[in-house]
Amino acid sequence: MKAIDWKRHEHNIYDKIIRWFEIIKEVLEDPTVLPENTYNMDETGVMLSMLNSIKVLVRREDPRDYRGTIVKRKSITAIECISADGRVLSPMIIWPATTLRDNWHTFETPGWHYTCSETGYTNSKISLEWLKLVFDPQTKEQAKGKPRALISDGFGSHETLEIQEFCFDNNILLCRIPSYSSHKLQPCDLTVFPSLKDAYREEADQLYQGGERTINNEHFVYMYAPAREKAFTKRNITSGWAASGLVPFNPDRVLRVTPKPPPLSQETDSRINGIQVDSSQNEILQTPVTPVSAEAFVSLYNQIEQNIHTEPGTSRLQKWVQKLANAGQSTFAECALLQDQNQLLRKLNNQAKVRRSTKSTILARGEGKVMSFEDIIAARVARVEKDVIKGKGKRGRKRKSVALEAGEPDAEAEPGPEVARTAKEVIKGQGKRGRKRKIAVCEADEPVPAPEPEAAQIINVPGPWRAPVARMI
User: Fold this and answer.
1) Model-wide pTM > 0.85
2) How many C-beta atoms lie closer than 10 Å to residue 161's C-beta?
3) How many domains does the chain have?
4) Is the domain of 222 the same as that of 312?
5) What are the distances in angstroms from CA 171 to CA 81, 134, 139, 162, 262?
6) What range does the domain containing 207 cover?
7) Digit-coded pLDDT (tens) for 24-70
8) 40 with 103, same domain?
9) Bridge partner list, 430
């Protein structure tokens, strides 16, 4: 049974649903609001590297019920918008970062927009930029001056004063779904987003099968783009609008939904599992052994050839023929799987080459900075032109000067005159309060004097200081 917040239970949101349909009915029945001008916008978080649960054939003695995973608890947000007639707008991807990196956008996605926030979630600034750069340009021509209805959840960033002013100025009717009821009233949550998550996990599985053990930001668009094409079909989109009771308008589709029946008891489950295990064991015992190597295959063929005349039509001979057929089927199936695996590996290698050849260059800084894919391409071209002007090589080496290229000696390369080192002799003595006094004998710009004989050095060393004593006459 799926866990759900108690505030989302049918008993607590029933009155909200009734009130919602009373309000939205007036909007949808307006003759100027057409289905092609009715939209639903929502954000979805996609975990970067969550794998699907899969079914695997293992031996009965193998107790494992799990497999390795590459899960990173990093979620990337995508803002999606669908229309009631089955269309989908270009998305906006929100990276959990403070800068936009070039190697995150190597997969071609014309029309997409990218931005970043420190938390990885949307905010009022990003929501306003989405309205200005994504929703309004892609729906204004379709509306032809008629009002556009935009249905969204009650998230606080969707209801700021700037957003309401922009919607009022551009004839956009902003409709807010009641709190804790989006799982029943929002078309995106009912059909599109579940299909999107499943398709994305399949792409992550393929990357895992291809040998990739670490999935980072540069892999996300490669997986999200094909998953999005599988999920955002016209059939899925229109099914979501129908399941929400909006288009066609039918509140009974939501109000008649009842909770799922309780699960079977543990005792019944154990009996069913026991029956399944027994039947599978009997089936395994009755299944003939199939050769899995070339030697076993040839040996089985020789047995059939020797006994085909002595024991024609016997059950033993039929079993051998069945084993031989099973071996052939297994071989062809294995070849087909290997071909699919090779195609997948070639595809992943080609994608990896593009990712490795693109440097992690900062394209934009600051939270809420939005760039379209076309802006990213223009930034790359500008950077390449700038590098050519600077004359950078493959490894960023600086070009040699014209004098060196012509074979002329470089004046700066000649060593200058040696600088005389500073020689200092420190004479230790006791001053007032026991401090040690340092006396510089030679300055840095004076020539170093010749060393004195050892005897002279001993004579010149001052003795300890003594107070003067008056002599008695």
Assistant:
1) no
2) 8
3) 2
4) no
5) 18, 16, 12, 14, 48
6) 20-255
7) 999 999 999 999 999 999 999 998 877 666 566 666 666 655 555 55
8) yes
9) 436
